[in-house]
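Give me C-alpha cells for this 168-residue protein.
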Amino acid sequence: MSMDMTTVGDTGLLDTLQHEVALFARRAEQTRLGGVGQVRNSMDRAAYLLLNRLDKEGPMGVKALAASMGIDSSTVTRQVAPLVDTGLVKRTSHPEDGRAVVLQLSPRGQARLEEVRSSRRQLMAELTEEWEPEEREAFCSLLTRFNSALSARMAVPGLPGPETQSPS
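Here you go.
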C-alpha cells in the first residue's frame, strides 16, 4: 500500500524537490546541456536522443524506434527527417521485407554523435569537478531511478503519456 507523500512526511522536502526539478528542466532547456567548446548547443535534444538510441540498439524501423523511446511514430518520422537530410541517419530497406524502412546511424552520424558526447562528457566533468566519485555515482543512480519512475508513470493508462507530451 503506497502512502500519499503530499500529505504525510516531508512536504517541505517535496516542495524543494519539485522546485529543483523545475529549475533543472529550465536550465537544461536554456543551455540544452550541449557541452563545451565549438560543439556547445550544436545538437538538439530530440536529435541527440534519436542518434543515441540508434547507436545503442542498432538499425530499426520507425515503429520500433518510437516504441523504444516511448513516443509516437509520427513524432519519430518528423524528428528523423532532418537527420536523414543532413546525412546523419540512413534509410534502408528491411533485409527481409523490402517494403519496410529501417533507420540506421550513418558513419557521419556516428562521428557527429561521438563529437557531441565528448563535449557533453567534458561539461559533466566540469560541472561535477569538485564532487567525489561516490557523489557522481550516487547522483547518476538517483537520476536514472527518477527518470525510470517518470517513464513508468507515463506508461500507466489514464495518466498523461508520450502523446500528450512535447514532441522532443
